[in-house]
Amino acid sequence: MKEDFLHHIWQFKKFNTQNLVTVQGEPLTIINAGQYLQQSGPDFFNAQLRIGNQAWAGNVEIHVKSSDWYLHNHESDTAYDNVILHIVWEHDTEVIRKDGAEIPVLALKNYVATEVLQNYQALTAKKTWIYCEKQITDLNTFVLDNWKERLFFERLARKAIPIASMATSTGNDWEAVLFCFLAKNFGLNTNGDSFHAMAKSLPFNIVRKESFEVENLEALFFGKTGLLNNNNEDIYPKDLAARYAYITNKHRLQPTHVNTPEFFRHRPDNFPTIRLSQLAQLYHQHQNVFSKIINCKSVEAIYNLFAVAVSPYWETHYTFDKESPKKRKALTTSFINLIIINTIIPFKFAYAKSLGKEISEELLTLLKALSPEKNTIIDKFKQLKVPVASAYDSQALLQLKNEYCNHKRCMQCGIGLEILKK
């Protein structure tokens, strides 16, 4: 038995509310169950009850056992002084107020129907991959669609938090913030932190000034990530090292570099050298990248903006001094899709929110035009016959698995609640 299930029972009155009697033997009538707070303090605020012949207004606290009151140290917390009813599954001890009076207790165990318990046990008794995997495909489509939209915007809001925070710290220099987060996503999971640190270490006004020569941008990016050294044999890396030294001196930049990105376990096209060259080309070819992204209303427009490849040296190299067969090495559609999902859509959302604008439909249209992501979580949902038609579906299902299923939050999940209603 879990407290969140008892919260659900009380909130939605999933028990026999007729002829209720407290464990002290007084009749209980529920006028208003109270507001479910889901924060610190009592579980339900401003409930209205009649206990015996006395009308009460105050808070309600719920535990599995009465003794949990003392286990959670509520007796010494003033936030619980106004509790008028203690709801429990099993009553095992009296709970006394500071004035010496006993808090009335309702033992729900005596009033919950067997069918309600069976539904709960069927949902939570045994987890294979997710608790509801036997019931989720039978769920009403309308319920599932509504919950997926909620999940998607929850995930989007979480992604927007660090963006908004950096925007505030930079005086709303959205171009600079975008550069940092684009760099992070160009680095993918392995090198994202290194690329992000590199971008943060470079004042964006310097990036903008040096963007007219792509070699200068590469010198900055490679230099700051520690990829330049004095032992290279090719002319190109020697030229980049000289440029980096000159630019560092000209702008009085600190010559220190961030953690050197990794090559290990990457496909060659994802080598940090290739991704940094592509990032340099993006900012060489386009001024005001942020403004252009905000004005892109279709996936095709974004694809056109990110239609960049590497500089000539990297067409025949993956690392310095080691030549390879010539290849253009442009950003692929699948990579741009990741940028749209993880950077562009969160940025559009965060920026619109800062202006008080509503662009939900625009974001949904963009995401529904993209193919779903490919990973083990989405593959498993597909095996369970859950529809995954677009990146919108995959983003919602990732939020479901990572934030609800993995933490057994069935009582806060629209799917879990719908199953319990049956």
TrEMBL record:
This is DUF2851 family protein. InterPro entries: DUF2851. It comes from the Bacteria. It holds the Pfam family DUF2851.
